[in-house]
Amino acid sequence: MNYPLRLTSLADRRAARSLVERCDLRFEDGFEDLVGIFDAGRLAACGARAGRILKMLVVAPEFRGTGLIGDIVTELMRLGREAGCEGFFIFTRPCTATAFTSLGFKPLVSHEKAVLLEHGNGLVSYFRARASLVRSGENGAVVVNADPFSLGHQYLIEHASTLMSTVYVLVPSEGCFVLPLPARLELARRGTAHLPNVVVTDTGPYLLSSATFPGYFLKPGDQPDQIQLEIDVDLFGQHIAPMFHIRTRLVGTEPLDPTTRSYNQTLRQRLGRWDVRLVEIERKRLGEHWINTRYVNHALARGDWRQVEACVPPTTLAYLHDLRAELGAWKAAQ
Predict the structure, then answer these.
(1) How confident is the model at residue 208 (pLDDT cuts 50, 70, 90)?
(2) Number of independent structural domains in the chain
(3) The domain containing residue 80 runs over which residues?
(4) Cα separation, 151 vs 254, whole angstroms
(5) Together in a domain, 163 and 228
(6) CA dihedral (195, 201, 206, 211) positive or negative
(7) Once rounded to an integer, what is the mean pLDDT over residues 24-43?
(8) CATH number, position 110
(9) Separation of alpha carbons 216 and 27, rounded Å
């Protein structure tokens, strides 16, 4: 039996797809590495890596119990470390979670349809690096993408700051954004610098995105977007909220976007199990329009600087003007 090899040829990928589907899973494109182990020319096991996430980890039935899954995981993590990843995650069905705990993975969230497991001490390291930010009191959290930071974000945070002892502004680290994380963090900090009880930090990999959530293990009829939302809420409620003594999650009302509206509904329904309440604050309006990231980005894509100026604080506007020559990225992103 061979060592794990990268599967790069069309024939190899077809073999991987066949094995994954044979194991009652879906082959899912969107990965940096795909590796497999062959026995006498047959693909006996395979797995893939998409960033920090290991997925489609399968062993042919006739080779189970031979330790191949451990070899696949070890190789994928080696390749991931070479690519700069620190810490790895696996999403899997509850019935198969124990196969990965024996490989050093620890459950972070156990959902009815899925278990999220982490390898390493990433969550502990995340908390340790932010220990100086922890404050006592009746604290709240606002999650903003700050892509870019708008007057809508600022209005929500200002309102939240009047209700809470401390407001943690959590900026997602991973997902599909135009601006890089350092820029989004800086814009959020500049836009809230006048609020002494506001703390801005990033979420690390501990906020899930539909762009990174793998649905290969879900069964027909399952709702990937809803399951991803529920796991994200549980991850926040079980781990992030206790760390920062957060008892309230504050969000803007969502009259237009059904995805965000569904997210707010899921927050309200699910946060209670973690003793966290949801408070909705009506969004800031500009005439007949609510100010949100999509509205601002559409104005940027059109080159409508008068509209942009009306939607973002001066700190964001100054940053955007500095990038004016590069704003074609917004047009490509719309």
Answers:
(1) confident
(2) 2
(3) 5-120
(4) 16
(5) yes
(6) positive
(7) 93
(8) 3.40.630.30
(9) 6
Contacts of 327 (CB under 8 A, 6+ apart): 300, 303, 320
Domain shared by 110 and 247, yes or no? no
161 and 92 together in one domain: no
Amino acid, res. 177: F
**Which residues are registered as beta bridge partners of 59?**
45
Q: Which residues pair with 50 in a beta bridge?
A: 53
Q: Are residues 268 and 175 in the same domain?
A: yes
Number of H-type helices and E-type strands within the chain: 13, 14
The secondary structure of residue 219, as a DSSP letter, is P
Same domain, 291 and 147: yes
Between CA 240 and CA 169 the distance in angstroms is: 12
CA dihedral 79, 81, 86, 91 (to 10 degrees): 10
Q: How far is the CA of 267 from the CAs of 15, 19, 231, 264, 274, in angstroms?
A: 41, 37, 11, 5, 11
Whole-structure pTM value: 0.89
**pLDDT tier for residue 64 given thresholds of 50, 70 and 90:** confident
- Does residue 185 have a pLDDT over 80? yes
